[in-house]
Amino acid sequence: MSLQKYYKSIPEPTAPKAEFVRMVAEKLEVSEATVRGWVNGRFKPSHPSFYRGLSEITGIPEDQLFTE
Fold first, then answer.
1. Which residues contact 11 (CB under 8 A, 6 or more apart)?
2. Cβ neighbours around 27 below 10 Å, total
3. 3-state DSSP call for residue 10?
4. Contact predicate 28/37, CB 8 Å
5. What is the pLDDT of residue 21?
6. What does the alpha-carbon distance between residue 68 and residue 63 come to, in Å, rounded to a whole number?
7. Residue 33 has pLDDT above 90, yes or no
8. Got the DSSP string for 11-62?
9. Rg for the chain (alpha carbons), in Å?
10. Is 10 exposed, middle or buried (0-12, 13-18, 19+ CB in 10 A)?
11. For the whole model, what pTM was predicted?
């Protein structure tokens, strides 16, 4: 499962998705806009530590986060 699929699997009401974006941004110390770019597939993280952090948060292996 990729990060994009993980994000899309969060229930439809916007609050859980918005909370996910806020939580990831806070934990990885990036902007919410950056996290939205990642989950929408517009761009990928610029540093390996972000891959590790995303993997820890979502349970998705690092090499599968951006497979699409």
1. none
2. 13
3. coil
4. no
5. 95
6. 11
7. yes
8. -SSHHHHHHHHHHHHHHHT--HHHHHHHHTTS---SSHHHHHHHHHHH---G
9. 11
10. middle
11. 0.80
